[in-house]
Design brief:
Radius of gyration: 25 Å
Number of helices: 21
Structural class: alpha/beta
Strand content: 15-25%
CATH topology of the largest domain: Rossmann fold
Low-confidence stretches: 351-364
Helix content: 25-40%
Number of domains: 3
CATH class of the largest domain: Alpha Beta
CATH architecture of the largest domain: 3-Layer(aba) Sandwich
CATH superfamily of the largest domain: Thiamin diphosphate (ThDP)-binding fold, Pyr/PP domains
Distance between the termini: 61 Å
Mean pLDDT: 91
Shape: globular
């Protein structure tokens, strides 16, 4: 018995294991919404389609499986673009479904037509540069092939977002449900064991090796393996921003985070002591590399392990390059070193006495940033495990938040769009409803996405939204201070009354103006099951004075 294409699409979502879809209905996707009503896929109504894409991003990031968002034709689709671009930059398997006018009115000026005909926008062309696969489905005879291609793009070795745009009349056509038999879900077998003998030899010969762990370690599920390798042979570990918590920060072998906004301790250790850098799944981007500072790599042997061959040698020339699964590589390396009976390394003297160079971050002044430091200290102490932190702000957490090896820190990287943390945290909490969740934003970024707090209210999603209130776009003010002779323009603004705003949302409000307010917050607020808007005051003239390229 045939079913509608819209029914088939919903069944396809179920086959992928997608149980939430984030979006906003419009006339051109109502056939799909109608079939969602009786399915096992829960639809989440957002306040803006950008929020839908960010929620799907957060869900995919935490779950390590495909997620989905849906929007109508025209403005619904264009509002998804920033979120899908972020998923593309982060290589996240997000399926975006959009509607389209019926095929028989293409080119005739239909409402919100986006087929590229007759001078209209072309949704597929718009999304092609920011997706692994983008297709308009105008007929049903190739539907099975399209869905199979979609599956391979979402779940293959190089995952990423996919766009399917489906005209209204095609959604209502009939199709044999056996079409889904053409969809092959990849079933990855054991990862091939990479050859690590050359890397093991480098480590045996090194006096002061350092592991630089990147996000690839987390995605490969290698946190425990990296920590075990470091402990077994006493090899210190520095991380990229996205890899905070690969080893518990504050533990003896944790050097902390590399990056222009960090306190500089990890960088000092590398520059003054390391003779071998073991780069595991880290891209050495602008932030991690201190604007590609040659001091980090000069005079040192370098080994690089990454599952993406395009990353190998992209920024620096490694002495040993291994393309393969990081977890498998770390296990093989551990075995090779054990077989060679390599003793633990003798750590060089502590690097705390080294002075930071001009290119390093200047540690934020304790007095000016006392509230931010104390907040992150209490967050780490009170929530040591199973906590998800989505962070738009980044600067304070990089230096102040000691991420445990059982917590999850998600900085706003990718295309670094302000307003990401709040909707992404909502999407993540949909997957992990019992995990305490914090979204940390500046007041400028918060006002780009504040309406999504009502999405959390509508679905009873607990969330802690932490707003740094200083009445300015701090990065812009910092750059105008450093590079433009303090000629400030369009960086300062007036904030709403956050207490009244929280009340209007139905959320609890907490205002942190002094250290005693933080003690009261962590002592009395329901930070696990409540919906809270937490406002931390900061002087707009107090911003970290790290140097950047802009």
């Amino acid at each position: 018995m045939n079913i509608s294409v819209s029914e088939l699409i919903v069944r396809y979502l179920e086959r992928l294991g997608i149980d939430h879809i984030f979006g906003m209905p419009g006339a051109h996707v109502l056939p799909i919404y109608d079939r969602l009503r009786d399915s096992g896929v829960k639809s989440v109504l957002v306040k803006h389609e950008q929020g839908a894409a960010f929620m799907a991003d957060g869900y995919a990031r935490v779950s390590n499986r495909p997620s989905a968002c849906i929007a109508t034709a025209g403005p619904g689709a264009t509002n998804l673009v920033t979120g899908i671009a972020n998923a593309y930059a982060e290589r996240l398997p997000v399926l975006a479904i959009t509607g389209e006018t019926s095929t028989y009115i293409f080119g005739r000026g239909g409402l919100q037509e986006s087929a590229g005909e007759g001078g209209t926008i072309d949704q597929v062309a718009l999304f092609k540069p920011i997706t692994r696969y983008a297709r308009r489905i105008e007929r049903t005879d190739y539907l099975g092939q399209v869905l199979n291609q979609t599956t391979q793009a979402l779940l293959g070795r190089a995952p990423g977002p996919v766009l399917l745009t489906i005209p209204y009349n095609v959604q209502k056509e009939s199709v044999d449900p056996g079409v889904l038999d053409q969809v092959h879900i990849p079933t990855p077998g054991p990862a091939p064991v990479p050859a690590t003998d050359a890397l093991a030899a480098l480590i045996r010969d090194a006096h002061a090796p350092v592991i630089i762990a990147g996000d690839g370690c987390i995605r490969a599920g290698a946190r425990d393996a990296v920590a075990a390798l470091a402990e077994a042979y006493r090899i210190p570990v520095a991380t990229s921003l996205k890899a905070k918590g690969v080893v518990a920060e504050g533990s003896p072998l944790a050097l902390g985070c590399l990056g222009v906004t960090s306190d500089g301790a990890a960088r000092r250790y590398l520059v003054e002591h390391a003779d071998l850098l073991i780069v595991l799944g880290a891209s050495f981007n602008e932030r991690t590399s201190y604007l590609w500072d040659r001091q980090l790599t000069a005079g040192r042997r370098i080994a690089q392990v990454d599952r993406d061959p395009a990353q190998l040698g992209r920024v620096f020339q490694p002495d040993v390059a291994i393309c393969g699964d990081i977890l498998a590589a770390v296990h093989a390396l551990h075995d090779a070193l054990a077989d060679a009976n390599m003793p633990k390394k003798a750590l060089p003297p502590a690097a705390e006495t080294a002075l930071p160079t001009a290119t390093e971050a200047t540690p934020p002044d304790d007095a000016a940033f006392a509230l931010a430091r104390a907040f992150f200290a209490q967050l780490a102490a009170r929530f040591p495990r199973d906590t998800m932190v989505f962070d738009d702000n980044i600067v304070f957490a990089q230096s102040y938040y000691a991420v445990s090896d059982r917590n999850h820190y998600f900085p706003n990287t990718g295309v670094s769009s302000l307003g990401y943390a709040l909707p992404a945290a909502i999407g993540a909490r949909c997957f992990a409803p019992d995990n305490p969740t914090f979204a940390i934003l500046g007041d400028g970024g918060f006002q780009m996405c504040a309406t999504e707090m009502m999405t959390a209210v509508n679905y009873g999603i607990p969330l802690n939204v932490v707003v740094i209130n200083n009445g300015t776009l701090s990065l812009i003010r910092k750059n105008q201070f450093q590079h433009y002779g303090e000629r400030y323009i369009d960086c300062d603004f007036v904030n709403p009354d956050f207490a009244l705003l929280a009340q209007s949302f139905g959320a609890r409000h907490y205002r942190v103006a002094e250290l005693a307010d933080l003690d009261a917050l962590f002592a009395h607020a329901d930070l696990e099951r409540g919906l809270n808007l937490i406002e931390i005051l900061l002087d707009k003239h107090a911003f970290p004075r790290y140097l950047s390229a802009r």
